[in-house]
Structure formats: C-alpha cells, structure tokens
Amino acid sequence: MPCPAAAAHVAVPSDNRPLLLLAPMEGLLDATLRDVLTRAGGIDRCVSEFIRVTDTLLPHRSFVRVVPELLNHSRTRAGVPVRPQLLGSDPVCLAENAARLAELGPEGIDLNFGCPARTVNQSRGGAVLLDEPELVGRIVAAVRRAVPARVPVSAKMRLGYQDDRRAEECALAIADGGASELVVHARTKVDGYRPPAYWERIADLRSRLGGRGAPRLVANGEIWTVEDARRCQQVSGCSDLMIGRGMVSHPGLALAIRGAGDVPWEQVLHWLSDFWAQVSLRVERRHRAGRLKQWLGSLRRHYPQAGFAFDTLRLIHDPQLIEAWLQAHVPSDVLVSVAPQPDPVGC
Q1: Does 115 participate in catalysis according to the annotation?
Q2: Whole-structure pTM over 0.85, yes or no?
C-alpha cells in the first residue's frame, strides 16, 4: 500500500556530503536498471522516466506502470528513494495529475523541462518549454499548490532550446514557482548529448539564484569519471550532481566519487545476471536480448570484458541462447536463475 509518510523524506545526506542523483533516461534507465544500479551503492535518489500528461487525469496504474517503486513506499529494493517525473505543458492538467500522483505517497514530484526528443518537443513538452519561461513558472507554481507541503517539488531543465539566452529566466521562474530543487543539464536541446557540457553556465545560474530560499542546484551533464565529477563541482560551484550515462556505463561511479573504491567486473556479472532475470519476467520475449545488449553496449566504455560479451551476443536474439551464455560465463555462485514464465501481456 502507498505510504504517505514516506513522502516527507527528502534525500539529503546527513553528513553534508554531496547529493548524488541517478538521472532519468527514457528507454534505458527504467525500474529494472534502477533496481540494479541502486544496489551498487552511492546513489541518494533516483528520478524516474517521464510520465506524459496531456488532457487526461491519469489513473493510479499509469503512474505505477512507470514507477513500480510507488508500491514499495517510493523506494527501490535497496531502499533508495525514487521521485516520479511528470512531463507536459498545461499547468492545470499537470497540477491535477500531480495531486493524483501524490495520493500514492511519492518521495517527491519532478517536472521535466529538459527532454530533447523531437516527438516530445513537437507536442509542446520537455525542452521546447524553455522558450516560454513564464509558462514554466506557472507550471511549477500550479503543481506546488496542488500537492501537500510534505511532497517536495523539483524540476530538471536544460540551458535552453535553440540557445541558452533565457536560461536565467527559466531558472528564476522555476525558483519563483516554489521548486525546492533544480537539476540543470548543462547543454541546450540543440546541443543534444554532444560534449562538452557547459558547466560554467550552471555557475551563472547559481549566481542569479543566490540567496536564502533559492532551490538546491544540482549539476548534470558529461560526468563519466571521478575526475569529471570533481571538475564539474569546481566549475559549476555545485557540490550536488546528477549522473546518467556515466552511471550506466560504470555502475561503481557514485561509489568512486565518494572515495569508496571501484566495482570489479565479477560484481557487474552478478548484476547482469540479476538484470537478465528481471528482464525475463517483465519484458516481452522478442525484446529481452535487446535490453541486455543495450546495457552491455554502455558497459563497454568502462569494462573491456563487456566489449567481448557484446561482440559475442551482438547477433543473438534467442533468450535461451542468452541464458546459456550467462550460465557459461557468470560464476555459478552468483548466477541468478529465473523460472520459466509466460510472456507478459501488453508490454
């Protein structure tokens, strides 16, 4: 059952260490991968993939489908809070859906002003809204008014759509709307995911937002290594970071940033086995191999062994052959088995 009391929790490390967040990544970082990566350690909170809001008041099941952690007090199995993210452009519809979502006891509610996907932007969602700072502010204010005070409201934005000239306006609008936290992906929509990330512009926003009552500012973008994290903190002036692709390619990155060492490939093999077991239960049969290879493709950046595995499995689509490869390459003491299950309906 939902736990309203859980919503009062805001993941702020008690020892004043930097806050490390796991980024939302549509089509990749879903509940299954969140479950695995948060067990790696070092992550304080996750933000979910976006839940699209149009002109409909969504039922509870629509929120739970994207964020099944809502059935576990808004936490992964490792106990890491997950904050659902809403995407849309109508302040009234977003506010009504946020109120409905709040009934499930989320850790908080995040608002998406950063998605660069063309289909989303053409439907007036995500980063395209950064051309309308006044609307951005109205959305945040409407959602803030619609949910109980115990439910934190945060936002994630890019530096802009075509350019970054209105970044300060948007950040101020989000702050004035009542957001308690703002994650800034230090690129525009046009920049996409091409390096570099312009961390110095986050420092500019930090300066404009300075003073008591400003939202907690979190830097995001192009953080692949501990050295990247340190430089981002120095250049942006933000101790708090959100990590996306860097954590997917290097599950031990958050731990390494905290100085707690790295994660060996043998441990990653254990997580791969667990990931596959969950995928086999949740994903339609014809898509299962693709999900494993998608993660292996990211892991190649940090682990040479993942490159070998990816090359071996690249043309294999039969889940039984994938299972056989795992049984042959994952040590038997860490292999996670999964009982045969019927293909899920409607995945």
Answers
A1: yes
A2: yes
